[in-house]
Amino acid sequence: MDRERQERLFHILGIIWRAALVLFVVVAAFVVLRYTIPLIYPFIFAWLIAFMIEPLVRFLETKWRIPRWGGTTLSLLLVLGTLSALLTLIIVRIINELTRLVEFIQNNIDKISERVADWFVSQGTVFTHLETTIQTSLEQLERFTGTVQSGELTESLQNSLQSLAELITGFITGFIAGLGKFLGNMPFILTVLVVIVLGSFFISKNWRRLHRNVRNLLPRVVRDSGDMVLTDLKKALVGFVRAQLTLITLTAIIILVGLMILRVNYALTLALVIGLVDLLPYLGVGAVMVPWIVYLFIAGNYKLAIGLTVLYIITIVVRQFVEPKVYASNIGLDPLLTLIALFVGLQLFGFIGLIVGPTLMVILMALYRARVFHDTLDYIAGRSANRA
User: Is residue 43 one of the residues assigned to a domain?
Assistant: First the structure.
C-alpha cells in the first residue's frame, strides 16, 4: 500500500515538474521574444521577403538556369520596385486628395449647413410633428434657463455641422502631420530598409544551407511538428490573401454593375476604389457608400440615393452569404474564430492587432492540427506521444 502511494506521489510530482518545465519554457520564450524582436525585427521581415520570393527564385534557377544569386537579385528588384512604385503613387494620391478634401470642407461647410436646414424645413408635413415636439421641448427648456432664442434650432444645427467639419478637418490634418513626421524619420527608415534588403538577399541566396543547418539543430520531434506547422501556416496565410482578393473582387464587380445600371459617371474607378476600401476592418464598403448616400439625400437626389441604398444592401447581403464559404474553403478558419481574433487583437495590440490577431489564430490552429498541444499534454501526463 505504501509502495502504491509512493508511486502515485512520484507520478504527481513528475506531472508537476513537467508542467513547471513546460511553463518555464513558454515564459522564457515569451521573454526572449519580447526583448529580442525590437533588435532583430529587420531580419524577421528579411526572412519573410526571402520566404515569399523563394518560389520565383527557384523557378528562375531551375527553368532559366540563372545562378542563385542572380535569381535572388532579379526577384528582389521586381518585388521591391513594384512595391516602391505603388507606395509612391498611393502616398502622393492620398496627400493630394486629403488636401483637396480639407479645402472643400472649409469652403463649403456653410453651404452644406444651410442646405441641411433647408432640407428639414422643406419636408413640410412629414416633420410637422417632429418640429412641434422639438419646439415644445425648447420652450420647456427656456422656462428653466431663459437662454433659448428664436431660430436656435437652425443655429444649433449649423454649430453641430461646424463641429463635425472641424473634427474631420482635424483628423485629416493630424494624418498629414503624422505623414510629415514619418517623412522626417526617413533617414532611419531608409537605414532599416537597407538592412532588410541586404538581409533578404543573403537569406535567399543561402536559403538551402540555412534551412538545412536549422533543421540539424532541432530534435526530430520538433522538426516533424515544425514542418507540419509551416506547411499548414503557409497554406492558411496564402488562403487568407486569396480569400481577401476574392471578396474585394466580388464587391468591386457588384458595385460596378450597380453603378453602370444607375448610370453613375466614373463607375469603373469608383468600383475599384470601393473594392479597395472594402479591406478596411469594421468599415468596408460603408466607409464610402453611407456618406455618399446621406449627402445625396440632403442634396435632394433621391433617385440616386435610393438606388445606392439598394446596391449597398445587396452588396452586404451577398458578402454575408459568400464570406463564410470563402474563408472556410481557403483558410479552414471558422468566421466566428476570425471575428474573435480580430476583436481580441484590437483590444491587446490596437489597430495592428487586426492583422496580428488573425495571424496568431492561424498559428494556434496550425499548432493544434500538428498535435503540438496534444504532445505537450502527453508529456506533462507522462504518456508517450502517439501520432496518427
Answer: no
Tracing cell 468566421 back to the chain, one arrives at: 335
- Is the residue at 154 inside a domain? no
In-domain check, residue 289: yes
Asked if 257 and 249 touch (Cβ cutoff 8 Å), the reply is no
CA atoms within 13 A on the CB side of 231: 8
Q: Which of 246, 221, 216, 260 is nearest to 331 (CA)?
A: 246
Q: Give the domain range for residue 284.
A: 219-388
Decide if 108 contacts 156 (C-beta within 8 A).
no
How long a stretch of residues is the chain?
Answer: 388
* Radius of gyration of the CA atoms of the chain, in A: 29
User: Three-state DSSP class for 347?
Assistant: helix
Tell me the C-alpha distance between 18 and 25, whole Å.
10
pTM (two decimals): 0.59
Per-residue confidence in pLDDT tens, the chain, 388 aa: 577 777 788 888 888 998 898 899 889 988 988 889 888 889 988 998 898 888 899 999 998 889 999 999 999 999 888 888 877 776 676 666 556 656 665 666 566 556 655 655 555 444 455 555 555 655 555 554 444 444 555 566 556 656 666 666 666 666 666 666 766 777 888 888 899 999 999 999 999 898 888 878 877 767 777 777 777 777 776 777 787 788 888 988 999 999 999 988 778 877 877 887 776 655 568 778 888 888 788 777 889 999 999 999 999 888 878 877 776 677 666 767 777 877 787 788 776 666 677 778 877 887 787 778 888 888 888 775 444 4
Q: What's the CA dihedral at 202, 203, 206, 209 to 10 degrees?
A: 150
The total domain count for the chain is 1
CA pair distance 325, 321, nearest whole angstrom: 8
Number of Cβ atoms within 10 Å of the Cβ of 329: 12
Mutual angle of helices 152-184 and 128-145, in 10-degree steps: 90
Distance between CA 145 and CA 150 in Å, rounded? 14
